[in-house]
Amino acid sequence: MSVTSVKQARFGVRIRAQIGAVLAVGFACLTISACGILPEQQDETAGWSANKLYSEAKESLDGGDYAKAVKYYEKLESRYPFGPFAQQAQIETAYANYKDGETAAALAAVDRFIQLHPNHPSVDYAYYLKGLINFNDNLGWLGRFSNQDLSERDPKAARAAYDAFKTLITRFPNSKYTPDATARMQYIVNAMAEHEVGAARYYYRRGAYLAAVNRAQDAIKDYDRAPAVEEALYIMMKSYEALGMKDMRDDTERIIKQNYPSSDFLAFGQRKKDKPWYQMW
Fold first, then answer.
1. Which parts of the sequence belong to the Outer membrane lipoprotein BamD-like domain (predicted)?
2. Alpha helix locations (H) across 144-276?
3. Angle of CA points 208, 201, 146, to nearest 5°
4. Which site from 3, 111, 204, 278 is most exposed, i.e. has the minimal number of CB atoms within 10 Å?
């Protein structure tokens, strides 16, 4: 190898080494905040007292910034778990998540509060809030009624709301939340009865008359005072008629006449101003 070739080879090695060093430094600058390219994010709440955190969280909550309120409440509880604001932060976290539409997080927070503080002065509110969270979800279930086959529907949220409200009025009959919870329970009962009757109607329309009778009987047995019972009896009567069970059909008609002497179903096959009972969906 000539002297020139040796010099060129050595020069190439030096160039590659220098390029490698530059790349290494550049990579370090990208990954180390000291280079100033990616500055460290500062926690604005660092050094805040419990009172300051709670005040800021409450201000965010009242102002409708529920996500920020949750962030502050969580910082408050993690930094001052045994302070005077911690328990209040827990229940208000549940409420903030509820208002933000975070149903799962809200339920988890309220269940945690009830489990940790079963004798807390605000536990009646916790049960009421749990009922409200599920009740709101139940309204969504009702809104989806027309887009889903009746045989596939499961109003689980309605049942959960009912159970929470029932616990409230049973354990705390004098709570200021009890009257509203009672009214919501009645609404849920009526909605659940309508669900069962809707299922009976669904099966009747498809010629599954025995299934229609069974679902109508479930509505009558479980929700005997709900307005939907009248239609449940009518569906039973029509199903027995379709099955050729004349005696059962006549007995059911007699029950309708005794309990609903002015029944729109017997007169018109539907409620007044409603679609025919077999054309609801």
1. 50-253
2. 156-171, 178-205, 209-222, 229-243, 246-259, 264-268
3. 120
4. 3
CATH match of 50-113 with 2.40.128: no
**Which residues 6+ apart lie within 8 Å of 105 measured at CB?**
70, 97
Domain range annotation of the chain: 3-33, 50-113, 121-279
What are the tens digits of pLDDT across the range 59-114?
Answer: 999 999 999 999 999 999 999 999 889 999 999 999 999 999 999 999 999 999 99
Separation between Cα atoms, residue 253 and residue 259, nearest integer Å:
10
CA separation for the pair 59, 76 (Å, rounded): 14
Q: Does domain 121-279 have CATH number 3.30.70.3420?
A: no
Any idea what DSSP says for residue 154? -
Quick: pLDDT tens for 226-274: 999 999 999 999 999 999 999 999 999 999 999 999 999 998 887 766 5
CA distances from residue 166 to 131, 173, 178, 223 in whole angstroms, order as listed = 9, 10, 9, 16
